[in-house]
Design a protein that fits this description.
The chain is α/β, with parallel strands linked by helices and 238 residues long. It has 10 helices and 10 strands. The strands form 2 sheets. It has a 6-stranded mixed β-sheet, with helices on both faces. Strands 2-1-4-5 form a 4-stranded antiparallel β-sheet, covered by helices on one side.
């Protein structure tokens, strides 16, 4: 059987002597939107940090389109086509919206394509074009999230990973961002969404992996898991 686009096998990782991830295995198919859900502290952010090379695993394999990523530094991971939109946005204070967006393209030298991608981001988020000269960190939380997603797109990724899309945002804005991700996905971009709000994640993604205490406890289609009484009780309050 051929490998999936993103293939994670037996990953163990943590911080110092504290292990957070225990034998994590999951796969993401090319062109799909998948999500990783679970309670706060389950290991979701650590997993994304491990995929993007920020955290070094102590065991296991991470492959993108067959290329091994374990041992790669974050810039090398970015070059393979993985963009990471971190929890809390982490925009650069004192830099304009456009400067923050352009930082996403710092490893690229295809100037014409960069201009086209910037136009694409501004088409997705017209408010960013209006605020292009404004300090990015002075915008609202939702606008900052748009900028962070746009910065990820500017790296021209093959896989876009987003950590906590809905964090601190009003439900109406989360719905809008979800619609935008669906639109982006139509262009063929694979998306891996980490989200504590399970209902939001299941509305956007087609497949889900539930992480509990650093382990994948259950996985399947969001349609199936959304009807699972245990998932409803544990994560949806139903």
């Amino acid at each position: 059987m051929p490998e999936s686009f993103l293939e994670i096998n037996g990953i163990e990782a943590g911080y110092g002597d504290v292990r957070v991830l225990w034998d994590i295995s999951l796969s993401v198919e090319k062109g799909e939107i998948a999500c990783i859900v679970g309670s706060n502290g389950a290991g979701k952010t650590t997993l994304l940090n491990t995929i993007s090379g920020i955290v070094k695993p102590t065991a296991g394999s991470i492959k993108l389109d067959g290329q091994e990523l374990v041992g790669c530094l974050p810039d090398a991971v970015l070059k393979t086509g993985i963009a990471h939109v971190p929890e809390g946005r982490r925009l650069f204070k004192g830099l304009s919206v456009q400067d923050n967006l352009m930082l996403g393209a710092y490893l690229r030298d295809d100037r014409e394509s960069i201009r086209e991608d910037l136009s694409f981001v501004y088409d997705l988020f017209p408010i960013l074009k209006e605020r292009s000269t404004q300090d990015a960190t002075t915008m609202s939380g939702g606008e900052q999230q748009m900028c962070a997603i746009g910065r990820g797109i500017m790296s021209k990724p093959r896989l876009l990973m987003i950590d906590e899309l809905s964090l601190g945002l009003a439900p109406r804005l989360v719905d809008r961002l979800g619609d935008t991700l669906l639109e982006i996905n139509k262009s063929g971009l694979t998306i891996l969404l980490v989200e504590q709000d399970v209902m939001t994640a299941f509305e956007i993604a087609k497949r889900a992996f539930v992480i509990e205490t650093g382990r994948v406890s259950i996985s399947g289609s969001t349609a199936e898991l959304g009807n699972d009484p245990k998932i409803k009780e544990a994560y949806m309050g139903i």
